[in-house]
C-alpha cells in the first residue's frame, strides 16, 4: 500500500494562535457522516470561517502548507477527519508548542507533520510572520530542523519510527502485518 | 521493566502483559495487543474500506464488537435518520455482516452508547486492553483496564492485526482525599480536576485515580470520572479494581462464570498498583472542599464551583490566556467575574457516555420527582442503552421524567455530539451532563454548561443555573453521593 511521504517542505504559513483549538472546530461533527474521505476541504474550520479575519480558507492563505498553531492544538476527539481535513485543505505541517496525543498520532499517519517548538521560537515565528506574511518556512524532516529567514534554525523531534515511515514511505500496517508470527506466538502463549 | 519484585503501577501491569515480543525492530514502538476492539459507525467505515483495499479480513471478529450510537435518532428508529447518517449506519451493518462482527443494531436489546454497553455486557474487564475509534474509550479504565481512543488508521490496524504500535505513556496519579460533601458527585470530582490542571494538563499521561473519594464511588461514578480523562488530555484513566468492580461484573453476560470467575478475580486482585510504585507525576485534590461544578467557557477546563465567580479576563496578566478567556466568555455570553447562579437556561440534556447510566437517571429523577421543568425549558433525558432504558422504566423513572415535562428518548449519543438532529438552536444555552462544551458542540452557535445530573435537573426545574443542594434539602430521599 502507498503510504504518505515527507522529506522537506518549504512554504508560506498561516497563523492561528488560539490555544486549545479542539477537533470540533477543525471539523464540526456534522461533517463526520461520510463513509469515505471525500469533500473534507470545505469542512475544515467550517464554523470559524465566518469570523472576521479568520486566516484559513481566504485568498491570502491559498497555497500555504504550514499552519502555525497555538498551544495544545487539536485537543478533544479522536476523529481522524481532523488531519484528513487539514491535508485536504492543503496543509502538510503544523507548528505549535504542543499537540494533543491522539491528533499527533493521527496526523503522522497522514503525512501531516506535527512540529513542536519552544515557546520562544513560536513567538518569534509569529512575530516574523506578522511582519512578513509571505515569509517561507522550511520543515526539514531528515535533519529535524525548522528554518526561516530571520529566525534561528530550530531543531525539533518527531517520533523516530513515524519519521522513518514518512521519510521512506513505509506503511505502518504493513510493518505490523510483517509481525503476524509474533502476534500469533503471543496469542498462543497467553 | 517487567522484572522481579520492583513495585509496579496498575498501568504498568496491564501494559507489560500486552507487549507482543517482537524481534529486530530497532526504534519501533511497542506492538501492543488489544483484547477488545469496540466499533461504531462514525470512525470505522474508512477503516473497513482500507481493509478491503488490501484484501484483508477482520483478524479477530471474536474480539470485535460494534454498536450504532453517534448518529442514531433517539425517536422513530432508523427511518428518521437523515440520508447520510442512514447510509453510514447501513455501511456498518454491511461491514459487520461481511466480517462476522457482532453488531448491536438500533432497536436491538444490546443497543446503546459504545462506552455504556461494553461494561454493561461484561465485555469490559479488569486488566484488559480496550480501544475504540472514540476518545471517550477512557471510560472503560474504571474497571482497571487500559482503554484509550484511537484514530481510524489505527482502527484499521487493529481490525487487521489485533495490535497497535504504541509508545509507553507516562503516569500521573490523582488522589482525591476525603469524601465529597452531599450533592458533589463523580462528575464534580472530574470537572474539578480538569479545572485544576487544564485541558492539556495530562497530555502524554495515563491517569490513575485513587483516594477515599474514588474508592467510595460505585462503578457508574468511576466510569464518569475515567470518561473525562481525555478532557484533561490524558491518554487514559484507570481505577484499581476492587470488590465494587467484581460485584458489578458478576453475572454479566460476558463475565467469566464458575471456576473461571474465581480464577479471574484472583488475577484481578493482583492488578492494583503495588505499594511504593512510582508515578511520573502526582496530584492530590481535597474532595471535602469541593462543591458542585459547572463550566462557563468553551472547554472542559473552564469550570468553577457553582457558587464561585467565573474569571475576569481583565485581572489576567498573561495576554494569550486573557484573549482565550475573553473569547470564551464572549461566546458563552457569561459576564466576567460573575457567578453563574441564576443564568437563564433554554435546554437541559441528561445523557451521553459520561452521565446516562441508571444512577445518573435516578439522580436526575430525585430532583424532578413531584416537580416540573420550568415553562420555557426543554429537557431531554436520553438513556445510555436499551438495557438502561428498560431498567429505568421498570422502576418508573420514565414516568417521573414525563410527569415533570421532560422528553424521554431512545438511547444514543444524542445532544452530546448533535449528529442525529438532537441539537441546540444558535444562541441557546444548555446545562448538559455531557463531556464537551466546545463551541458549537451541541449545535452551531449553541452554548453549553457542563454539570452533573443533579445540577442539570435542578436547573431544569428553576429554569436557571441552580445549585442542586438547594433543592435536595427539600427532598427527603435525596441520594447523598451517587452518579
Number of helices of chain A: 7
What is the strand content of chain B? 15-25%
Q: Secondary-structure element sequence of chain A?
A: EHEHEHEHEEEHHH
The main pleated sheet of chain A reads as: 7 strands, mixed
Instruction: Name the strands of the widest sheet of chain A in spatial order.
Output: 4-3-2-1-5-6-7
Number of helices of chain B: 16
Spatial gap, N to C terminus of chain B:
37 Å
In order across it, which strands form the biggest sheet of chain B? 4-3-2-5-6
If you compute it from the alpha carbons, what radius of gyration of chain B comes out, rounded to the nearest whole angstrom? 22 Å
- Characterize the main sheet of chain B: 5 strands, parallel
Helix content class of chain B: 25-40%
Total beta-strand segments of chain B: 18
Q: What structural category arises from helix and sheet content of chain B?
A: alpha/beta
Distance between the termini of chain A: 32 Å
Shape of chain A: globular
Unreliable stretches of chain A: none
Task: Please sum up the structure shown.
The complex is a heterodimer of chains A (190) and B (483). Chain A is of the alpha/beta class and 190 residues long.
